[in-house]
Write a structure and sequence with these properties.
It comes from Aporhodopirellula aestuarii. This protein is α+β, with helices and mostly antiparallel strands and about 500 residues long. It has helices at about 1-15, 80-95, 95-110, 110-125, 130-145, 150-160, 190-210, 230-240, 270-290, 295-335, 345-355, 370-380, 390-395, 395-405, 410-425, 425-435, 445-465, 470-480, 485-494, and strands spanning about 30-35, 40-45, 45-50, 55-60, 60-65, 70-75, 165-170, 175, 225-230, 250-255, 260-265. It has 19 helices and 11 strands.
Length: about 500
């Protein structure tokens, strides 16, 4: 994504032209093709065309200005409009099960508040409904703040060495941070508050996702510890202190300490390059204003577009990383993957990737079909070894891909298999997770232990899911039916 925005900065600089006038059309999605490349960005929001070949895309975080020939307008009913129609149908049906189905649909589509609202609708229809009463009990746990425990804060400070860091609490998380206290212009919240809001959204979505499928997890009795470094360098120093084996894009979870750690993605080396471009454009914009030079309006709009794209990308990377690592922490604290059990990489990363948010700069729901994840799956689909079910379940994928210098294909495979099993074989998956959670953790995985564990994983998998050949055929068919938002909208256009 960072590379895409860098290309985008250059592309817009080359293709930007003059003249804005009266609007003539609106749309729901903008597919932006980076000139001279095959890179695309899908942005939600309305589009207005102008005379002179320009177009303005209204994003929740501001307006973006493009050359009209570089975008494709994709009309599609918004999630909000679909929800409104289905809500009317539910009210007319007076059916609790239909209300719960809509609540689950809302949850998958990133509409958490609407999902909770549907529980209230269902309650008014029939408050004696057994599953609904269990959901109501869960919501009482979720809505209540856990008691403040000074030992939780002390543990986080002692481990990080963060005596000078600030503490901000939410209902279920304690965030230790040194983040800037400036409030975001769009949300009106500080960076720490925005991260806590996201963590709470992931928290509620996680519990409700399982509850809608009949699994009621017990929420932790203490706040979960999270550390946010405002500087990438401090994060890397912590990573080196831990032995250099936990290096991730922007965060990691430590099961022994039960702490998640992140850094502000805007302070990385990649973003520093973008910030330098943005700084130069701001200076040029101010000069254009003062001198009233020809084409000043175009330059001002261009500079604002680049600034906004950097902002969207920065927030998007933070949302993706925080949602991924939060799931690691939640599964470890709710009994799905006990902290003292064996760490089966594809199992843990598959679950975290399934819940990971993928859309730009917001929580996008559960089970999103991410372009990167499904792209890596498709590359390896026909590989007789690396693409096989046996290879993935044995947990060889991450080790092999690491030797090849890129573990992203292994993430794609783990995501793809988990996506299928979670959606189509959920009960069997829960049995499999329970059995895996009973495996003992090994201090060191020798080649002999690794092979023995691989055989054990395959045996457990077969016991839980049955014939592996039949299952793999079902999985392949399922994956062929999955589409990214871009692919789905493109099909609707034809």
């Amino acid at each position: 994504m960072t590379r895409a925005v860098l290309f985008l900065a250059v592309a817009i600089a080359i293709t930007l032209v003059a003249a804005f006038d009266a609007p003539i059309a609106n749309a729901d999605y903008t597919l932006y093709q980076l000139p001279g490349s095959d890179l695309q960005l899908l942005l939600e929001g309305s589009v207005t065309y102008h005379a002179g070949g320009m177009a303005t895309h209204k994003h929740p975080r501001g307006s973006l200005h493009f050359n009209a020939r570089d975008i494709q307008v994709l009309k599609s009913p918004s999630a909000a409009s679909i929800y409104s129609k289905r809500l009317r149908d539910v009210r007319n049906s007076d059916d609790v099960e239909e209300a719960l189905k809509l609540a689950q649909w809302c949850l998958k589509n990133g509409m958490l508040e609407q999902a909770k609202s549907m529980l209230s609708v269902a309650w008014k229809i029939d408050s004696s409904h057994e599953r609904l009463r269990k959901l109501a009990g869960l919501m009482r746990y979720i809505n209540a703040s856990v008691p403040t425990d000074q030992q939780v804060e002390a543990h986080a400070r002692d481990f990080v060495g963060g005596r000078a860091m600030e503490v901000t609490r939410s209902k279920h998380f304690l965030l230790l941070h040194d983040a800037d206290q400036t409030k975001d212009e769009v949300t009106g919240k500080t960076r720490a508050e925005m991260r806590l809001n996201l963590l709470e959204t992931v928290y509620e979505s996680y519990f409700l996702t399982f509850a809608f499928r009949g699994v009621f997890l017990r929420p932790p009795s203490k706040r979960l510890e999270v550390v946010l470094f405002s500087r990438h360098g401090d994060f890397l120093q912590m990573e080196r202190r831990l032995g250099g084996s936990l290096k991730q894009t922007a965060g990691f979870y430590l099961p022994d300490e039960n702490i998640s750690m992140f850094y502000d993605s805007g302070t990385s080396e990649h973003f520093r390059v973008l910030m330098d471009i943005d700084k130069q454009l701001v200076e040029a914009r101010e000069m254009a204003k003062k001198t009233r030079m020809a084409g000043a309006g175009d330059l001002i709009r261009f500079a604002k577009t680049i600034e906004l794209l950097i902002d969207i990308t920065r927030e998007s990377e933070d949302v993706s990383t925080v949602s991924h690592e939060a799931i690691h922490q939640l599964t470890a604290n709710t009994g799905i993957f006990p902290r003292d059990a064996a760490f089966v990489r594809w199992v843990h990363e598959g679950m975290a990737s399934y819940f990971e948010s993928a859309k730009l700069a917001k929580w996008s729901g559960v089970g999103v079909v991410d372009q990167s994840r499904i792209g890596y799956y498709r590359v390896l689909e026909r590989d007789p070894l690396r693409g096989s079910l046996e290879f993935i379940v044995s947990d060889f994928g991450f080790a092999v891909e690491a030797t090849l210098g890129n573990q992203l294909p292994a993430y794609g495979q783990a995501w793809a298999l988990t996506h299928f099993l979670f959606d189509r074989r959920f009960d069997s998956l829960m049995k499999f997770y329970k059995r895996v959670g009973q495996l003992k953790r090994e201090d060191e995985l020798t080649e002999e232990i690794w092979k023995a564990r691989a055989n054990t994983l395959l045996e457990i998998f077969d016991e839980c899911f049955g014939d592996r050949t039949t299952l793999e055929l079902e999985w392949r068919r399922y994956m062929r039916g999955l589409k990214t938002d871009t692919e789905r909208l493109a099909e609707e256009m034809n």
